[in-house]
Amino acid sequence: QVQLVESGGGLVQAGGSLRLSCAASGRTFSSYGMGWFRQAPGKEREFVAAISRSDPNTYYADSAKGRFTISRDNAKNTVYLQMNSLKPEDTAVYYCAASGFPGVPFIRADFSSWGQGTQVTVSS
Asked: What is the C-alpha to C-alpha distance for residues 13 and 95, in angstroms, rounded to an integer?
């Protein structure tokens, strides 16, 4: 399995931007599809975006389309989530996850490794 550490969360005003990063340990990062999920208080963890092993195959939740961009740098063992035009409803803990699925994974059960999460708070 791969170890994942997220960073880049914080407090931002509505309409602002944040870039989340997820650093992975190990030398097999490029063999994993990667995804971002989020969980708001009292709600289920939900899919946000995913990217296949070989960029640029990506997939987004409807809530993220047009505002969020997922990307990866296999040389740096890092996956990113650029979030623009943030809304208060984007407030959640954001989790990075890794999957051995060969395509673009987006089902929670397809992900085998998870980070600890980073808090994103969007004020109105």
From this structure: 21
Strands (E) in the chain, as ranges, are 4-7, 10-13, 18-24, 33-39, 46-51, 58-60, 68-73, 78-83, 92-99, 111-114, 118-123
The answer to whether residue 55 scores a pLDDT higher than 70 is no
φ, ψ for residue 96 (rounded to 5)?
A: -95, 145
Ramachandran region of residue 15, left (φ > 0), alpha (ψ -120 to 50) or beta? left
Q: Could you read off the pLDDT of 82-121 as tens digits, one per residue?
A: 999 999 999 999 999 999 988 888 999 999 999 999 999 9
- What letter does residue 3 receive in the DSSP assignment? -
Calculate Rg over the CA atoms of the chain: 13
Q: What is the rounded distance in angstroms from the CA atom of residue 65 to the CA atom of residue 67?
A: 6
What is d(CA 88, CA 90) in angstroms, rounded to the nearest whole number?
5
Tokens 């969980």 correspond to: 39
The residue type of 102 is P
